[in-house]
Amino acid sequence: MKKVVVFGGGTGISCLLSGLKLFPVDVTAVITVSDNGSSTGVLKKELDIPAVGDVGKVLLSMANVDDDFVTLLRYRFSKEGSLYNHPVRNILLAALIDIKGNLTEATRYMARLLNIQGTVLPLTEEKVELVGKSRGKEFFGEEEVSANVRHIRKLTYDHSIHVVDEIKEKIEEAELIIFSPGSLYTSILPHLLAREICEALAEAKAPLMYVSNLVTQPGETDGYTVGDHLRKLNKYLQNRKIDLVVANNSEIDPVITEKYITTENKRIVPLDTERIVKMGARIIQDNIFCIEDGKIRHNAMKTAFLIFSYLMEGE
Asked: Most CB atoms closer than 10 Å: which of 32, 144, 151, 309?
């Protein structure tokens, strides 16, 4: 099977992986651990552990168990009290960190429990915070960074981190490396703040692929085109550039797009083909969206099929 490494965090990578798991591909998912909001932020602060929320979401997206078990792990306590707003998966991962000694081993155990075919790895086993720097001011934590991207000149962490060793091995072995859809500044770029990741990518033989977001994220990527996402990724990649872009080229129902604009201040990300080609990237474009409960989502199966088709070229 072809070996693929996917970088991301949260809903975007979870959707992509739910499609990729249906194809004969050996997937390694690498997940950011700098979130500090909601249940994750509370557990991170109270238990002094890395962020577990995105890891938990990804594990469930790759699970091969009955629906009731997945529903149980997704269950979020709704009654007021010490467990309020905590999903079961987060509590389990927090307990497993104590039992197994670190988030990597906790994740491995959960993966076995969920019968996952593939590998899920946190970027680091350390508790880490995202920091956005501007002139004379710092924005501390993922939530502050996301709300102040327009003021930020440089992203960094609150300290130098050590990347899980296995990730570097997986990058070296990979035949394709993917940056998933998701929050550009808080789920994707944080991977490239780790020196060891940039060094491993610079040496990697595999092409780099970016699966583009479908809509902009208020406060982070207002007005961004696909090319703008690509430009920012290339800046943080340093010694590598994105080789391939998977993007949507089909019109989305104007009624739905207008609703996104008026209720969420989100707009469709335009595909600026000519600019992307000038940046040296090949574009793989198709209708890759679907509408679920009135929301615009990547069509997980179609997007994964395009990736798998690329991997099979020349076979």
From this structure: 32
Mean pLDDT of 108-120: 96
CA atoms within 13 A on the CB side of 263: 8
Tokens representing residue 96 in the block: 């497993």
Q: For residue 53, give both structure tokens.
A: 């929320």
Whether residue 77 is found in the same domain as residue 188: no
Instruction: Tell whether 122 is covered by a domain.
Output: no
CA atoms within 13 A on the CB side of 183: 21
User: What is the reported pLDDT for 219?
Assistant: 87
What's 207's DSSP letter?
Answer: P
Of 286, 281, 266, nearest to 219 by C-alpha is 266
Kindly tell me if the per-residue pLDDT of 151 is higher than 90: no
pTM over 0.85? The answer is yes
Whether 186 and 150 map to the same domain: the answer is: no
Q: What is the pLDDT of residues 224-235, one digit of tens each?
A: 999 999 999 999
Instruction: Determine contact, residues 311/175, Cβ cutoff 8 Å.
Output: yes
